[in-house]
Amino acid sequence: KAGVTQTPRYLIKTRGQQVTLSCSPISGHRSVSWYQQTPGQGLQFLFEYFSETQRNKGNFPGRFSGRQFSNSRSEMNVSTLELGDSALYLCASSTSGSSTDTQYFGPGTRLTVL
Amino acid sequence: TQLLEQSPQFLSIQEGENLTVYCNSSSVFSSLQWYRQEPGEGPVLLVTVVTGGEVKKLKRLTFQFGDARKDSSLHITAAQPGDTGLYLCAPPAGGSYIPTFGRGTSLIVHP
Fold first, then answer.
1. Do B75 and B60 touch, CB atoms closer than 8 A?
2. pLDDT digits (tens, 9 = 90+) for B93-107
3. What are the chain B neighbours of A102 within 8 Å (beta carbons)?
């Protein structure tokens, strides 16, 4: 089974621009979660999607948004980029998002905002 | 939000040494998970500890869940360079709970 894939792996943007990141979950997984990882704050939860619906959301501003498609692939969008948005963005998939499921993480997209 | 504190933050050791890293909280957890994240990769689940006082062994790695289910430790025996990575603890994600990870312990094992 192929693992979680994320594209692109690296991205450089400038302040004020917007960016879209993509995540393809493991086949059969319907839950996709997004996380932001920075040296200062660690791994922080952004949101979780299940069956095309946002089911859970972390404490991030509205500039961070996401969506999930019928094939469970997910995208996240960050508008009006700020320097502080530079981070590793990870997505994780699981079968149903239950606490008994195992989350499988992708390799991440490294976003640098200049 | 359930805060998890991990210590030490950084650890640099020689191959063959033993080490222990800790994950502490003031909250009680039904279970805790340990992940290892290697450079350039996402975290990979190592183990889930469920019962207070539980000890789980994964080759040279020994995980323990505190009796009160507020803390956990990871002990590595005879560390190898392949153990290098960021070790994270977290309660399992799921339901309406907001997933919370500790800041992690960054381990470097020198050959």
1. no
2. 877 778 889 999 999
3. 45
